[in-house]
Write a structure and sequence with these properties.
Blueprint (H helix, E strand, L loop, with lengths): L2 H16 L3 H14 L3 H17 L3 H18 L2 H17 L3 H13 L6 H18 L3 H17 L3 H28 L2 H17 L3 H18 L2 H17 L3 H18 L2 H18 L2 H17 L18 E3 L5 E3 H7 L15 E2 L1
Organism: Oryctolagus cuniculus (Rabbit)
Family: Belongs to the RAPsyn family.
Protein name: Receptor associated protein of the synapse
């Protein structure tokens, strides 16, 4: 079966599927998969089979076709096809509640070089990762992923993606609410503070700042009571983002200054990086170049202090979506840099790298 006939049969299957003749559509697509000699056509029909089995709740079959699609994408050596196939693999594992695998495949998607499909599928990758974090009850990470997905939806006017993110946020809210109930029953103050912070972040992401502020206040009260200074930093960061949304940059900077003092006391570099990034955006919008440069310099100092940079090219790790490689000696580099370096020993400590692991 050649390229033209493959296209015709794929279209025939789509028409059957859209008219609710699902089994007939599957038969047509399966025959195409068996007889077509066109690799691009095979990739497309595998995508149809993945989607159909997902909507039918046949998740093991979905996974089977997703694995075959990955192999086809590798044969084609096309970054767009690889991104789409890894996303399908992530979704398949998400449906089967293999959440760690889902997160791993989503990170692979984000680490692929820039693709034409990236703008369209990036939001779906973030959504799938958020669902996986939610499945593992990692609420803060789940919310961060949902917020990224929502930004993709708004930037690309993707109403369907926005609808799916809102559904996931509903599930998120329900799980946090249940956790809050348990925390209240057992008098678990740290868990109560965490739940209040999550509630506040949810309302902030929805633009409901009137509800977010009191939740942040309640969370801060408990965090202060139990002496959780890092928790206070997270609360103040959320408050600062609310003030930015309210177009009150001076109040945002007040919250950032308090959070920065606490983060420095604790020695938490990641929080400091986030605060410097937020400050950069505020000073850039105000046109205050001296203050902007100061925070840019401090940001890079934090990066150096945390050694968040590649030992080969010197670029910061995390500023761009790049695939990383961890060696057995625990040193981490950009994958592309190690491939170009062409040695099996670690460039830093010269130990044999043996079999590296992917991050």
């Amino acid at each position: 079966m050649g390229q033209d006939q493959t296209k015709q049969q794929i279209e025939k299957g789509l028409q059957l599927y859209q008219s609710n003749q699902t089994e007939k559509a599957l038969q047509v697509w399966t025959k195409v998969l068996q007889k077509s000699s066109d690799p691009v056509g095979r990739f497309r029909v595998l995508g149809c089979l993945v989607t159909a089995h997902s909507e039918m709740g046949r998740y093991k079959e979905m996974l089977k076709f997703a694995v075959v699609q990955i192999d086809t994408a590798r044969e084609l050596e096309d970054a767009d096809f690889l991104l789409e196939s890894y996303l399908n693999l992530a979704r398949s594992n998400e449906k089967l509640c293999e959440f760690h695998k889902t997160i791993s495949y989503c990170k692979t998607c984000l680490g692929l070089p820039g693709t034409r499909a990236g703008a369209q599928l990036g939001g779906q990758v973030s959504l799938s990762m958020g669902n996986a974090f939610l499945g593992l009850s990692l609420f803060q990470k789940a919310l961060e992923s949902f917020e990224k997905a929502l930004r993709y939806a708004h930037n690309n006017d993707d109403a369907m993606l926005e609808c799916r993110v809102c559904c996931s946020l509903g599930s998120f809210y329900a799980q946090v609410k249940e956790s809050m109930k348990i925390a209240l029953q057992h008098g678990d103050r740290p868990l109560q503070a965490l739940c209040l912070l999550c509630f506040a972040d949810i309302h902030r992401s929805r633009g409901d700042l009137e509800t977010a502020f009191p939740r942040y206040d309640s969370a801060m009260s408990i965090m202060t009571e139990i002496g959780n200074r890092l928790g206070q930093v997270h609360v103040l960061l959320g408050v600062a983002k609310c003030w930015v949304a309210r177009k009150a940059p001076d109040k945002a900077l007040d919250a950032i200054e308090k959070a920065q003092d606490l983060a420095e006391e604790v020695g938490n570099k990641l929080s400091q990086l986030k605060l410097h990034c937020l400050s950069e955006g505020i000073y850039r919008s105000k046109g205050l170049q001296r203050e902007l440069r100061a925070h840019v310099v401090r940001f890079h100092e934090c990066v150096e202090e945390t050694e968040l940079y590649c030992g080969l090219c010197g670029e910061s790790i995390g500023e761009k979506n790049s695939r990383l490689q961890a060696l057995p000696c625990s040193h981490i580099f950009h994958l592309r840099c190690l491939q170009n370096h062409g040695t099996r020993s670690c460039p830093n400590c010269r130990r044999s790298s043996m079999k590296p692991g992917f991050v």
